[in-house]
Structure formats: structure tokens, C-alpha cells
């Protein structure tokens, strides 16, 4: 079975139309149809249900489509690795990141990489932590920048890149805006905007536990937002105060005010995470550009399985 046949099959499986698939492959329909028939004969399985009006994948076709896509992805990764090996300072690097990395150190890091390794092709993907870890284990990413609080990083290597504190953002007219430091008691019964729990249950549970005391009712936790920009928008709309990393709170925020918290909250640690199985020369060059860790891991407790 050849990769060309798999590419033909995947294209038809995505388009579900032989004429459009042939056009996309820059070929005529007849040889494409012949190639698909030959593949079905080789597999001894019918992959498509064809009528004069439609083309549909069979159950076997749907299964084979997923497997064929995985094979083609692996083949592309092998080609990229070969490029990295043979092109010296060139090659490709696939980078995963979260919103906080994009808003802080990552643009400067990418600019440094462009200056020093101009031939290196960078592919940047914004992904949630779970997606980045899965992609690293499947060797679909070279490196990820994430907050892996509560996630299993067994088999992966890490380096702390930034460490921040949480701060509370609210409207200037908020009842707590006159306070310099906010306590958990002051937040009791008030609306506090957090990210949706499914984004990272471990961090969410740690934050809600820290804001809940035995002697007073807890805040009203809102989970309407999935990222920090959405949380800020909700604050501006008057839905409550939001817990946000300090870097998000820098700069001019019209109509809003930012306060420190007198609450023991987890640090906001962003780590570079990579799979040592993909430690190519290109990745080593990129890792050399990372800023030094903001504090030694022996001096402060990182977010390990809490980080």
C-alpha cells in the first residue's frame, strides 16, 4: 500500500465527491476512481457507498479514514525530521502555546529565533493544556508552553519560563475598589469570574478552595468564560470581579481597577514542555533561547502534579 493511494483516499473521504477530489489533487477523475477501486481490492473491503447522486463512507471507510490520516501525519513528521537533520540551521519546529504565553514572553522569543535562525520554519498552535500534552506524547508537537497544573508529565521534560501572581480585576465602581488588598472574607457572596472548570479542573478546584473559608459563605463563582480575554470582557460588562494573572492586568484598562489579594493562591507558572524523544538539533537551538528560570525549583515549590 503506497502513501499516494492513502492521500487519494483521504482526499475523497474528506470531499465525498470524486470530481472535487480529483480537482484538488490536480488529476482527472478516471485515474482517481481506478486508484480507489484498486485500494478497495487490496483491502478486500468496500470503503465508499456510491450512487449517481452521492458518495458516502462505509463504516469500514470511516475507520480507515482515521487510520490513513494518522499514517500520513506520521509520514509528514518523518519528512520534517529528515529536513531537520539535513538542513542544518533550517528545518521546522511545531510549537504549542496558551493565551498567557502569547501575551507575555512568546512574541519576543519567536523574534529572537527569527533573528538567529532565520531559515527555521515555525508552526504556532494555540491549544489548551490537555491538547498540548497529548500532541507532545504523540510527537505532533516539538515543544509546548502551558500551565500543566494537575496534569501527568511523566516522560516529558520541562523548564519553568515565567511565574506570576493572581490579581483581582474589577470595575472602578465595584464596592471593593477602595480596598488596597482583598481578603477571602471580602469576596464572600460576591460574583467572582473564573475560567470554565473543564479547562483545568485542578487549578479551578485549588482557586475555589482558597477563596472558601469555614466561617463565611463562599463567593458566587461564574464559569462563563474560557479564556482571559473573555473574563476581562465580562468584568467590563459588570458581571463581577475576575481572578487574572498579573501580566494580563498590566497596562491601561479603561474603567477597571486592579487589586492585590491577601489570599494564599497558587502561582501562575508557565512551563516549556517537550518530549525528549523529539530532541532534535533544531529543538536544542530553540531551547537555548529560553529565558533562565525565574527561580530555582529547590527554592520554591513548583506547580508540578500541581505544576
Describe it.
- It is a single chain.
- Helix content is 38%, strand content 22%.
- Strand 9 (191-195), helix 9 and strand 10 form a beta-alpha-beta unit.
- Helix 1 packs across helix 2 and helix 1 (3-15) crosses helix 4.
- The chain has eleven helices and 13 strands.
- It has 307 residues and is an alpha/beta fold.
Kindly summarize this structure in a few lines.
This protein is α/β, with parallel strands linked by helices. It has eleven helices and 13 strands.
Shape call: elongated
- Low-confidence sequence ranges: 296-307
Spell out the helices and strands N to C.
HHHEEHEHHEHEEEEHEHEHEEEH
Overall structural class, as computed from helix and strand content, comes to: alpha/beta
The pLDDT mean sits at 88
Strand order of the largest sheet: 8-12-7-11-9-10
Helicity level? 25-40%
Distance between the termini: 44 Å
- DSSP summary: helix tally: 11
**Proportion in β-strands:** 15-25%
Number of strands: 13
**Main beta sheet strand tally, sense and closure:** 6 strands, mixed
> If you compute it from the alpha carbons, what radius of gyration comes out, rounded to the nearest whole angstrom?
25 Å
